[in-house]
Specification:
The complex is a heterodimer.
Chain A lengths: L16 E6 L21 H17 L5 E8 L7 H10 L2 E11 L6 H9 L4 E7 L3 H7 L5 H13 L4 E8 L6 H13 L4 E6 L7 H7 L8 H17 L3 E4 L2 E3 L6 H7 L4 E4 L4 E4 L2 E5 L3 H9 L5 E7 L1 H13 L5 E2 L5 H9 L3 E4 L2 E4 L1 H4 L2 H8 L12 E4 L4
Parallel strand pairs in A: 1-2, 1-9, 2-3, 3-4, 4-5, 5-6
Antiparallel strand pairs in A: 6-8, 7-8, 10-11, 11-12, 12-16, 13-15, 14-15
Chain B lengths: L30 E8 L5 H11 L17 H6 L6 E7 L2 E7 L7 H9 L3 E7 L6 H12 L3 E7 L8 H12 L7 E2 L8 H11 L12 E10 L3 E10 L2 E2 L3 E4 L4 E4 L2 E5 L3 E3 L2 E2 L4 E5 L13 E4 L17 E7 L5 H14 L4 E7 L3 E8 L2 H14 L4 E3 L6 E5 L4 E4 L11 E16 L3 H10 L3 E9 L2 E9 H5 L2 H8 L5 E12 L1 E8 L2 E2 L5 E4 H18 L7 E7 L2 E8 L14 H17 L1 E4 L2 E4 H9 L3
Parallel strand pairs in B: 1-3, 1-4, 4-5, 5-6
Antiparallel strand pairs in B: 2-3, 7-8, 7-16, 8-15, 9-14, 10-11, 10-16, 12-13, 12-15, 17-19, 17-20, 18-19, 21-22, 21-23, 23-25, 23-26, 24-25, 27-28, 27-29, 27-30, 30-31, 32-33
Helix pairs in contact in B: 12-14
The chains are: A alpha/beta, B alpha+beta.
Chain lengths: ~400, ~625
């Protein structure tokens, strides 16, 4: 795909994305709210078997060749490389498919990456988060700066064409200088892709408990805003173009799989807790790995719940997701009354027939969406979804 | 305050009093009518229960604690809001016990209840001594020429100091300490003697059965099944069941559908004669037509109105708004219903930019306001927000016109106003000696002028201050209680209007005034008010897409300013796979929340922020 050719809306793509969830971690990071377990190592082989069986079931049901594959977690790199390879090999995909694997800097090495490469991985996403030791400690991460150096070298050495470095902004104790230093270090690796996420305090996490107990400060949204703008300036300056709220890439290195989420492409979900989107339905697999394994083993569907967004909900999804990207949202769908005010406030531009967020507006995408998408005239302007099936 | 002593009518001729049902009817000399005057918690209700029991009116097994306080609120607060009455028999005499409202806001109602009596039983806690409101009601009883029978209660408690308290009563009221009875309403000790003393000391009523009917309404309650039930005291003439009546103040005729006495259950009788106390039902649907102080006479042969009638006059005002704007119609209906039972509060529709549609309501006082609001919430299931209470001001305009202002936001502009007057009250406080300094300091802060300070005993002081009513309605009572550990008591009565250096402070949100926060305050306090409110609002108003200045202003002059800094980030960092539904739900919730937002100019403020700003105390 060329630089900048982001699919502007729902349209035919030559195949779905496939998301594979790997719910295993060596340890849980303090901020993490994902479905992942640190004590299920014994399940790995059975789990991989189940994923493979699930893929075959989908293929038998008519799944066409995947355009993108994304293996996320959890920590996919914690799986033995041959196990991961078995899943990848099971997924039928186009020759030009983008295949991403998430990895922790301290759980990948040259040998693993070589296996990934040999089984079609084109892209690795490394959870760097920070290069400052005390910030990493505050996040509950187990790796250090040296791990990052080695991991990036190994990725490049393995000949994997594209990689991403994840950065988290706004951890307790992170100063502007710390964040700047992390950016400098990250840019030092000449990454084709960087994601910068403002730290969020998710319910049920260790971080939430620490914040609630007053042991650490909650992220300051103003500080995060400053960091975002700082990151944007530095990354853009280094040739990585902004293309979604938290993502920057060199031309041609945008993550096609993620772009699929934002442009409404279909996605097949494999693995526990994975979310899919097919035939206008959003659905999700049972979150516990044991149950996923058991269901697949029993020949049953692992899908635990579905929702079919109604017309308004689907329109909201479409608008809100597009607005988060550099493509922008359709001008025709935006409330003209709100548009002028938001433009005057420096939050957005109108570019042709699209509404595109400016840097300050990206940070306020939720409010901007709310203002641009009024739903007048409906007695009940709740965005409706019809739930089909109950999580099991 | 007018009392029974001003009631016209010839002296009674005892033997003519009754033409009733049977030969055993009591003669007028056998009646004794009295009220109990007591402070909260001094044992009035317990004593009433004991009297009911002793007189055989209530079987002890059916005894419900505090028989007379029938409203839930009355039981909870330990106060009587509505007057009740009961007819009892004691040793060949008929006792007519009239329970008076026990709070400062209901002074007029107290005066009418007292007007229906010849005597008053002053009940004082033997350890705490007499309190300010008790004293005020006692003075009212003396003004009404009532005979006071004083009793010290709770003598069974170890902390009781009956000798000292009796001397205090003698010093304050001139009742010889030796005449002060000592009882325990709880154990019943001394209560029979008390009843004997009431019979012996309180004079019988007087009245002319052959004169034209004059019956005083001293209470009216609305009963959903029977309409208005009024409590009446007959001064002259006879009130006959089925007769055609005329209500002199309301100017309306009604039929006496049922008359009767409470003993304590309602018991219909064919006739009530001079000196008798009972109830009257005449098909009225609105207590406003059977007001306290009304004189009822016969339609055919009308008597003169009894003196002392007064229209209830609201002293304290506030805006009442439904928290949920959809409940406006319900609020209006509830106010209508409540007014059927309480003609002393007023309400008028008003609109607030901040709070939407609501009502400006007037009350006799703070407690009356609180009770009314609580009843609306409790009995009618409404959720309400009340603006800060204010008093009624008089604005004298440069063109000579005087206008009254019961809503601060409608005060005329300074350039057309020559002077503003505010209501003053005379405040009487009784306090233990050690808190005198604290109370004086409080009164000084509240612009008070001392008019009297007197030692009632070596450890108790009476302080009398002239204070703006506006200062009283601003949490004065709570401050007094906290500064005196709850030991001081207070009473106040209106003392006319005075000119004051008052200004209106407006609160502006992004240059748009927020009417609900406009306040009329003394100029020396304007800065303080402005600073406090701007700070409070800054904490409560959520950040917007732009900086929002919050200003306090007098006319065009800004006296305080805070800024709600623009919101900079609300975006969800990650939006992949399963995040999409989550994000949609979040946006959905935000949209829902926006429906409850009030738009003040360009600023969106959740209703809750206004509610919090109005209810939060510093």
């Amino acid at each position: 795909m060329d630089a900048g050719t982001v699919a502007p809306g729902p349209g035919p793509r030559p195949g779905p994305g496939v998301y594979v969830h790997v719910p295993f971690c060596a340890s849980r990071c303090d901020y993490c709210a994902f479905a992942t377990w640190t004590d299920r190592g014994h399940l790995m082989e059975a789990y991989v078997d189940a994923c493979v069986a699930d893929v075959r079931r989908r293929v038998a049901d008519g799944m066409v060749d995947a355009a993108t594959v994304y293996v996320g977690g959890g920590t996919p790199s914690l799986l033995p490389a041959p196990a991961l390879a078995r899943i990848l090999d099971a997924i039928p995909r186009r020759a030009d498919a983008e295949v991403t694997v998430e990895a922790n800097p301290d759980s990948v090495d040259a040998a693993k990456l070589q296996v990934y490469r040999d089984h079609g991985v084109t892209r690795v996403s490394l959870g760097v988060q920070s290069t400052r030791a005390h910030v990493l400690a505050a996040l509950g991460r187990t790796h250090d700066r040296a791990n990052v150096d080695r991991a990036v070298a190994a990725v490049v050495g393995a000949g994997i064409a594209s990689f991403n470095l994840d950065v988290i902004a706004g951890a307790d104790g992170e100063s502007d200088a710390d964040f700047d230093a992390t950016l400098t270090d990250v840019l030092g690796f000449a990454p084709p892709h960087v994601s910068v996420y403002g730290l969020m305090v998710e319910p049920g996490t260790a971080l939430e408990r620490r914040v609630a107990a007053g042991d650490c400060a909650p992220p300051d949204p103003d500080v995060q805003a400053d960091r975002h703008l700082r990151a944007d300036a530095r990354l853009t300056g280094a040739g990585l173009g902004w293309y979604e709220v938290s993502n920057w890439a060199r031309p041609g290195h945008e993550c096609r799989h993620n772009q699929g989420y934002w442009s409404g492409e279909e996605c097949v979900a494999i693995g526990a807790a994975a979310h899919g989107y097919t035939d206008g339905e959003r659905w999700w697999n049972t979150p516990r790995p044991e149950r996923y394994v058991a269901r697949i083993g029993a020949g049953r569907s692992p899908v635990a719940g579905r929702e079919r967004p109604d017309v308004a909900a689907a329109a909201l999804d479409r608008f809100a997701l597009a607005l988060r990207t550099r493509v922008g949202a359709p001008l025709a769908d935006a409330d003209p009354g709100a548009l002028g005010e938001l433009a005057a406030a420096g939050l957005l531009d109108v570019v042709g027939d699209r509404v595109v967020l400016r840097p300050a507006g990206r940070l306020l995408a939720s409010e901007v969406t709310r203002r641009l998408l009024p739903t007048p005239g409906r007695a009940d302007d709740r965005i409706g979804t019809r739930y089909i099936g109950v999580p099991g | 305050m007018a009392g029974a002593g001003t009631v016209p009518g010839p002296a009674g001729d005892g033997d003519a009093a009754r033409s009733g049902e049977n030969g055993g009817v009591p003669r007028i000399e056998q009646y004794r009518s009295f009220s109990i005057i007591a402070h909260i918690d001094h044992g009035k209700s317990t004593l009433a229960d004991r009297i009911l029991e002793l007189c055989g009116a209530v079987d002890p097994r059916d005894m419900r604690a505090q028989y007379l306080d029938s409203m839930d609120l009355e039981r909870e607060r330990g106060i009587t809001i509505k007057a009740q009455n009961v007819r009892l028999e004691w040793k060949d005499h008929v006792l007519q016990l009239i329970d008076t409202p026990g709070h400062v806001d209901f002074g007029y109602e107290v005066s009418r209840s007292l007007a229906a009596c010849e005597g008053a039983l002053l009940l004082v806690d033997a350890s705490q001594g007499i309190e300010a409101q008790t004293l005020a009601n006692c003075y009212a009883a003396l003004d009404a020429d009532l005979t006071i029978v004083a009793a010290l209660n709770k003598i069974d408690l170890p902390a009781a100091e009956p000798d000292r308290r009796a001397e205090e009563i003698e010093r304050i009221l001139g009742i010889p300490a030796a005449d002060v009875l000592r009882i325990s309403a709880k154990t019943g000790e001394g209560v029979p003697e008390l009843l004997d003393a009431l019979v012996a000391r309180v004079p019988p009523p007087t009245g002319d059965a052959d004169a034209q009917l004059q019956a005083l309404i001293f209470d009216s309650v609305y009963d959903p099944y029977r309409g208005v039930v009024s409590s009446v005291r007959i001064f002259n003439g006879n009130l006959d069941s089925g007769s055609r009546l005329f209500y002199l103040q309301a100017g309306r005729p009604h039929d006496a559908e049922e008359i009767g006495v409470r003993s304590p259950g309602m018991r219909p009788v064919p006739r009530l004669g001079p000196g008798e106390v009972g109830y009257l039902i005449s098909g009225i649907k609105d207590v406003g037509e059977a007001r306290v102080g009304e004189t009822v006479t016969n339609a055919a042969a009308r008597g003169e109105p009894l003196s002392g009638y007064r229209e209830p006059k609201p002293m304290v005002f506030c805006g009442l708004y439904p928290v949920d704007g959809d409940e406006y119609a319900e609020l209006r209906e509830s106010l209508e219903k409540l007014r059927l039972n309480d003609s002393s509060f007023t309400y008028e529709p008003e609109t607030s930019g901040a709070l939407g549609f609501g009502f400006r309501c007037g009350f006799l006082g703070l407690l009356h306001m609180e009770i009314t609001r609580e009843r609306l919430e409790r009995e009618y299931g409404l959720s309400l927000v009340a603006t800060s209470p204010n008093v009624e001001y008089r604005a004298h305009l440069v063109d000579g016109v005087m206008t009254t202002v019961d809503n601060p936001s409608s005060l005329p502009a300074p350039n057309v106003t020559e002077a503003i007057e505010e209501p003053y009250v005379t405040v009487t406080m009784l306090t233990p000696t050690e808190y005198v300094g604290a109370l004086m300091e409080l009164c000084q802060q509240r612009r008070g002028e001392m008019t009297k300070m007197e030692y009632l005993s070596e450890d108790r002081v009476e302080l009398v201050y002239s204070l703006p009513l506006a200062e009283i309605v601003m949490d004065f009572f709570d401050q007094m209680k906290s500064r005196t550990k709850g030991y001081a008591s207070l009473d106040y009565e209106p003392a006319g209007y005075r000119r004051s250096a008052l200004v209106k402070v407006d609160l502006l949100l992004n240059s748009t005034p927020v009417d609900a926060f406009s306040a009329i305050v003394h100029k020396d306090k304007a800065y303080d008010y402005g600073r406090r409110m701007t700070q409070k609002l800054r904490e409560l108003i959520p950040r917007q897409l732009f900086d929002v200045p919050i200003q306090a202003a007098i006319g065009g002059r800004i006296i305080a300013r805070e800024t709600v800094k623009a919101k900079r980030k609300d975006v969800i960092a990650k939006c992949y796979g399963g995040d999409i539904s989550r994000k949609r739900k979040l946006l959905d919730r935000q949209k829902e929340g926006k429906k409850r937002m009030k738009q003040i100019g360009r600023v969106e403020v959740p209703q809750e922020a206004f509610v919090a700003a109005l209810t939060l105390d510093d």
